[in-house]
Amino acid sequence: MKCPICGFQNREGIRICERCLAALDIFSVKAEDEGVFCSQGHWNPSGVRFCTICGEAITLSRGVESPFLLVEKETGQFIYIPIKDEGVFQLVIGRRSQDFTPDIDLSVFPMSATVSRRHALITIDPATNTFSIQDLGSTNGTYLNGVRLEPGKDYRVLPGDTLGFSKKLNLILEVRDK
User: Fold this and answer.
1) How far apart are the first and last CA of the chain?
2) Spatial distance between the Cα atoms of 14 and 47, rounded to a whole number of angstroms
3) What is the pLDDT of residue 4?
4) How many CB atoms lie within 10 A of CB 166?
5) What percent of the chain has pLDDT over 70?
6) What is the per-residue pLDDT across 42-77, written as a single tens digit (0 to 9) for each?
7) Helix, strand, or coil here: 27?
8) Could you tell me if 40 and 87 are in contact, meaning their C-beta atoms sit under 8 angstroms apart?
9) Residue 97, burial from CB neighbour count under 10 angstroms (0-12, 13-18, 19+)
């Protein structure tokens, strides 16, 4: 199989590129399979040196795995919400550019073209599993269960709620058992 990252032609049946160690078909591997997470929360197969989604260098330390996910309604594709060791923390949600990488990069989703670079801010208290979201003045708006949010105002988000980043990208907040 030809590697989608470096273009190397691998032997048949190989799941990880023999040249660059990228996953050859990341979506055929279950998240429960052994692997590592980059600091953005993307799952990668064991042995990769760089994230197969965002290209970030993978550190040997696995760190704290996040029980928080954003799941795309249509496809089931998901991204982990990175967590931090300190108490309550905030993360910028948006789309990567040459000059900026948000804490939660929605560029991995097919409908992300309408997501602003700095689209929204999510506040998380991992001790109580409480969440709030604030639109950062995004061009196409942030939605909570279909209702457009007023920019600059905090809104409580519950597990199972649908977060819309424009009208084209709808993600469900999930919390899995630790």
Assistant:
1) 36
2) 13
3) 63
4) 20
5) 77
6) 666 666 677 777 777 765 444 456 788 898 877 788
7) helix
8) no
9) exposed
